[in-house]
Design goal:
- There is one protein chain.
- The chain is mostly helical and 497 residues long.
- It is built from 18 helices and four strands.
- Strands 1-2 form a two-stranded antiparallel sheet. The protein has a two-stranded antiparallel ribbon with strand order 3-4.
- β3 (223-228) and β4 form a beta hairpin.
- α9 packs antiparallel against α17.
- The longest helix is centred in the last third of the chain and has 34 residues, at 405-438.
- The chain is globular and about 65 Å long.
- The two termini are 35 Å apart.
- 47% of the residues are buried.
């Protein structure tokens, strides 16, 4: 049945389809018209984008549109260069983690899905999709950070730039938790597999010919030069630009795909596709050179495997021994064959890691001086010089925020702000554990990924500047986990709480 044929409310999404198509075309034109040889292709892509959504809406069923838009929206999480950053400020004197109000292709597609689900009465909705403790924590986070941006931040533009991302993350979490159906979890896995393969292609291009995923297309540098012994090694970031960001995305995606494979019984082609994505994804992961990313993923995968074996009645001790042997074998193989892996672990980085110590000391000085409210959301690098009493005077020559998400959050929003953010992470992990423990198939998979992905992110961000609302791919996983938890509890006749 065509969309809207049985429910007039669904027809209200037709203007939304046209709007999303036109907006997507506009973003495509912005992304690709910067390439001098691709202006014509950008124009054609724009016209196609304007026409595509309404045509699909008229001739495909609601579920087909839903599956297609959802799959492309998840895949588009990796298409970070198809976006527009409204009110972006050029040539700012210090580093900020958010500059302007970004709208991406994935944002538009998720917004289209939100409108489709909202107006279509046939879609299951649940006012209690987000458990009350988590809802309270999220509201508290929004209120505290909003008040901080309004009352504390001296350069409020960058505070509101960050807050815009925080609002989007919470909004899409709520939408996904409220409306996703079980079959979405299957398409989530296939979309993540496609995104992982895209990253493998992008990194391969960046390491070799540099013909497609270049700095001009991505609008940012795609490689990071890290000290290794007396020379340097290049670490590649794929479509995400920074190798640490790519490493975290791959950690989350590979976790889901690893536990997704056993659910694909009777689907040999899809299983082969996902296994191929795992193979090239692991190879790409090593090329990021992210030591914290490797550590976080290793812990998350090891914990996930032990929990998975226990849940499925396997011998955990034997499994642990097999895991130790497997990890040792993989480590030896990578050490022998991958120069990036070997050099990042063994060669001197000429103090690039040790610089995190005076950065942390400066952050501690800020927290000691302003423990309640911090220096303001997005204001760390603006204010750090006044608090740098380290022997290296690191703030005078290293224009970056502290490489630790907890210290950064506490320094900018105060200790109460950090507590609220940590409560959100703890509750997400707890509900991920509940979903894994009580679910089967896709439900257990997404619960384990939400819990493991949060752990991997938290470990990596001990050595990286970030906020919990920045990695949208993680919030998509969290939203899918909460939806799976809702469906699992409904199947047992329980209510979400």
């Amino acid at each position: 049945m065509r969309a809207g044929a049985s429910d007039p409310h669904a027809l209200l999404t037709f203007p939304a389809a046209l709007l999303v198509g036109a907006s997507s075309a506009w973003l495509l034109s912005i992304a690709f018209a910067q390439q001098d040889t691709a202006t014509l292709l950008a124009t054609l892509a724009g016209l196609l984008g304007i026409a595509l959504f309404p045509v699909l809406f008229l001739f495909l069923s609601r579920q087909a549109i839903d599956q297609l838009a959802w799959t492309v929206a998840v895949f588009a999480l990796a298409l970070t260069f198809i976006d527009n950053n409204f009110a972006f400020r050029e040539n700012w004197p210090y580093t900020v983690l958010a500059n302007g109000f970004r709208v991406s292709l994935s944002d538009l597609l998720l917004l289209f899905l939100a409108l489709l689900w909202w107006f279509d009465r046939t879609y299951q909705s649940a006012t209690s999709a987000i458990p009350k403790p988590l809802a309270i924590a999220l509201v508290a986070m929004l209120l505290w950070d909003g008040a901080n941006a309004l009352l504390v931040a001296k350069e409020s533009f960058f505070a509101w730039s960050l807050y815009w991302r925080e609002i989007k993350a919470v909004f899409f979490l709520w939408i996904l938790a409220r409306y996703l159906r079980p079959y979405h979890l299957h398409w989530l896995g296939l979309a993540l597999a496609a995104a992982v393969i895209l990253e493998a292609i992008a990194v391969l291009d960046q390491r070799t010919v540099q013909a497609i995923f270049t700095e001009k297309l991505l609008k940012t540098e795609f490689a990071l030069k890290s000290a290794a012994g007396s020379g340097y090694l290049l670490r590649f970031g794929g479509t995400f630009g920074h190798p640490n960001t790519l490493a975290n995305f791959l950690a989350v995606a590979l976790l889901y795909l690893w536990f997704f494979v056993p659910t694909l019984k009777g689907r040999p082609r899809q299983r082969a596709f996902v296994v191929f994505a795992l193979i090239v994804g692991f190879a790409t992961f090593t090329l990021t050179g992210s030591r914290a990313g490797w550590l976080g993923f290793g812990f998350a995968l090891a914990l996930g495997m032990l929990l998975w074996m226990k849940k499925n009645g396997k011998n955990v001790i034997i499994g642990a021994l097999v895991m130790i042997f497997s990890v040792s074998t993989v480590f030896a193989a990578l050490y022998a064959t991958s120069a990036t892996f070997r050099d990042r672990l063994t060669k001197e980085d000429r103090g690039s890691a040790l610089v995190r110590i005076p950065l942390a000391e400066t952050a501690a000085n800020i927290i000691a001086d302003r423990p309640l409210a911090g220096v303001g959301l997005g204001q760390y690098t603006r204010e750090m010089h006044r608090y740098d009493r380290t022997y290296l005077q690191v703030a005078s020559w290293y224009n970056q925020p502290v490489h630790n998400f907890a210290l950064l959050t506490a320094a900018e929003t105060g200790i109460p702000g950090l507590i609220v953010h940590l409560v959100v992470l703890a509750l997400i992990s707890w509900y991920g554990w509940q979903t894994f423990r009580g679910g089967t198939g896709f439900f257990a998979d997404i619960g384990l990924t939400a819990m493991g992905g949060t752990l991997a992110w938290a470990i990596q961000e001990q050595a990286n500047p970030d906020y919990i609302f920045m990695p949208y791919y993680l919030w998509v996983i969290w939203g899918a986990m909460l939806a799976a938890r809702r469906w699992e509890r409904q199947s047992r006749g329980e209510t979400a709480r």
